[in-house]
Specification:
- This protein is mostly helical and 235 residues long.
- It has ten helices and no strands.
- The chain is 51% helix and 0% strand.
- Helix 3 packs across helix 7, helix 4 packs across helix 10 and helix 9 packs antiparallel against helix 10.
Amino acid sequence: MSKHRIAALLASLAIGGSALAFQASPASAAGFVVSESQFNQMFPNRNSFYTYSGLTAALGAYPAFANTGSDTVRKQEAAAFLANVSHETGGLVYVVEQNTANYPHYCDQSRPYGCPAGQAAYYGRGPIQLSWNFNYKAAGDALGIDLLNNPNLVQNNASVAWKTGLWYWNTQSGPGTMTPHNAMVNGAGFGQTIRSINGSLECDGKNPAQVQSRVSAYQRFAQILGVAPGANLYC
């Protein structure tokens, strides 16, 4: 093989390798399927804490999120995540759980690590309202952040807050049988994301108004992103 052909082959491999690297790279503000203007359209009354830059800074923690499959699937997943987030936070208005009477009830003292930040320190915070000491421990371990001892980071740091939401979405099945991420990328549909987030209280006819709230937000956000919502919207 001539030097020229070898050089050409190496060049083509380099191009292919860089293309593959680009496809597998984490989403960022530049590559995220939701633009800042679309984000602002989705959340016109949002709390200033929930910044778009905080969200895009968190994307690197879970590079498969809204970055897997076709353009349609990526947009559907982003819309599904943000719709559930919208429902949990009143349109990204609430950073912390509003019912303070619940605060002391999220400490499972049977865990060996206990509740070092205090009995009432593990109330709902952030876009998916992370709660319970064991969830703060698990999310913190996964993200490399000591949330068990420093739960307030979730209400004081926008990127950390978004990362906890993405942690749940990408790694937890909750009362469901799959993660919300897998539900969207494998075609199970939006209804299964509801089941994984709050299915024990909402699905199977338990609270149809809450389910409808999530579905309506998803349909609205999918329209903003210019994508069909797909099938299996309800749980």
